[in-house]
Amino acid sequence: MGGTGLFSYTGVLKRGNDDFAAVNGSDSDNGDDFDAGVPGALFSINGRGANQWNHWVKINGQVYALWYNGQFGEDNLYLLRPFSTTSQTPAVTVRYRYTLNSIRSPEKRPAADPQPERRR
Question: Which domain of life is it from (predicted)?
Answer without folding.
Answer: Bacteria
